[in-house]
């Protein structure tokens, strides 16, 4: 009986110690290795991420760490690649508590949604909360602002700039109003053309025969084209200036591990 009591007391003590230990929360969206967020904050992040993921047809994450020994850019790029693969849609916010760095890495369509200036705006908001040690609010601001920019869509005149080569790739983004106007004009033009052709060429009698012999005419001529001179004009296209604020502009990209990534960061 004494042994049983001792065993029960020992098991009770183990249970108490186990449930008293801090638990670092993890989810498909939140990898909080440091334990910066509350359960309520993580639930809110998961809910917002679920809505964002459906919109972008990809995934968005946040990760906290004190064990990173490489650059925040490399860590974030590798983390995102491991989660979604190269050039697939996604974004991750890294909170590196050992190096005191914030970094956002983007891939796929998130490179276009989160332009350089939009990332700067998100980093401003995250930075303000990090220096005040409001870590949950910092991550929630990231999700909230990313969702807002995705709702606004890719800004007009958007382009990507390759950081290594300076190559510029421009994207034409049609707004909903522009699409509606284009479809309306196309339908009106097609309808008018159909009515015009039908009214002009509709035959009144099925016995009508076109007198092609009397009305046809054929004349063959000899024509020769000769290239005299050709000219090639080249010019250097300057790198566009960096945009600040406004949420528009371009996205600076770089290559890493066979994939293309955007992003940016800062110390706190």
From TrEMBL:
**Domain named TPM: which ranges?**
30-148
Keyword annotations for this protein, in alphabetical order, are:
Membrane, Signal, Transmembrane, Transmembrane helix
The family database entries (InterPro entries) matched by this protein are listed as:
TPM_dom
What the entry lists under Pfam families is as follows: TPM_phosphatase
Coiled-coil region: none
In this chain, the stretch annotated as Disordered covers 235-268
* Extent of Gly residues compositional bias: 244-268
Q: Where does the sequence pass through the membrane?
A: 179-197
UniProt KW GTP-binding keyword? no
- Signal sequence coordinates: 1-25
According to UniProt, the name of this protein is: TPM domain-containing protein
């Amino acid at each position: 009986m004494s042994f049983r009591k001792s065993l029960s007391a020992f098991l009770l003590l183990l249970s108490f110690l186990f449930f008293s230990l801090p638990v670092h929360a993890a989810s498909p969206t939140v990898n909080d290795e440091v334990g910066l967020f509350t359960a309520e904050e993580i639930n809110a992040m998961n809910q917002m991420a679920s809505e964002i993921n459906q919109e972008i047809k990809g995934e968005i994450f946040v990760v906290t760490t004190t064990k990173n020994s490489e650059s925040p850019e490399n860590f974030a790029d590798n983390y995102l690649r491991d989660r979604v693969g190269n050039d697939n849609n996604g974004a991750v916010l890294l909170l590196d508590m050992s190096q005191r760095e914030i970094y956002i890495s983007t891939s796929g369509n998130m490179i276009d949604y989160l332009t350089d200036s939009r990332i700067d705006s998100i980093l401003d908001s995250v930075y303000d909360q990090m220096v005040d040690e409001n870590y949950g609010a910092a991550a929630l601001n990231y999700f909230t602002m990313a969702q807002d920019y995705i709702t606004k869509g890719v800004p007009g005149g958007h382009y990507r700039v390759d950081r290594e080569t300076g190559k510029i790739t421009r994207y034409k983004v049609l707004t909903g109003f522009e699409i509606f106007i284009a479809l309306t004009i196309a339908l009106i033009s097609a309808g008018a053309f159909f009515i015009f052709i039908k009214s002009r060429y509709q035959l009144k009698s099925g016995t009508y025969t076109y007198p092609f012999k009397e009305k046809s005419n054929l004349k063959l001529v000899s024509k020769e084209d000769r290239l005299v001179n050709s000219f090639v004009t080249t010019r250097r296209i300057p790198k566009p200036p960096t945009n600040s604020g406004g949420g528009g502009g371009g996205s600076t990209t770089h290559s890493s591990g066979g994939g293309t990534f955007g992003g940016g960061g800062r110390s706190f």
